[in-house]
Amino acid sequence: EGAALATGGSRRGIVVSTLAEARFFAAGGFDDILYAFPVPRWRLAECSALAQRLQHFQVLLDSPQGLEMLLQNPLPAGKRWLVWLKLDCGNARAGIRPSDPEALALARAIAQGSPELVTLVGVYAHCGNTYGCRDIAAIQAIARDTTAAVLEFVTA
């Protein structure tokens, strides 16, 4: 009920951190879900099933190996992997640093490689490094730094 309220009843545009959550929301009629963790090989079959079932099931990538894995495991005709490039802007949990020279190359490889198989939807950053903050000013500083890093990367 909370997710339906948060999406204005559209049941679209939600982010989940586990595939169990994705399956739960899919069963509840949501058909636009982002799995906000770079797809591990051992979860590929589950992600493929959700991508085939839903109108938009989106995943994160943060490495050339992840891109190659999706390219080697295409979805059936009429479907393609919908991908967000995961940037690590200080969280140090998942993602590629926007200042890493490989990050821009990876973004280009996703966007220009095989768009009929893998389509770049956008760039994603998570401010998980705010969890240890003790005040609003510290949270806002991290949010500003993350926003600046993402904008600089996208501009490049």
TrEMBL record:
Alphabetical list of Pfam families matching this protein: Ala_racemase_N
Stretches assigned to the Alanine racemase N-terminal domain: 9-130
Highest taxon in the source lineage: Eukaryota
An MF annotation (GO) of this entry: D-serine ammonia-lyase activity
Phylogenetic classification of the source organism: Eukaryota, Metazoa, Chordata, Craniata, Vertebrata
InterPro entries: Ala_racemase_N, D-amino_acid_metab_enzyme, PLP-binding_barrel
GO terms under biological process: D-serine catabolic process
Organism (species): Calcarius ornatus
Name of protein: DSD1 dehydratase
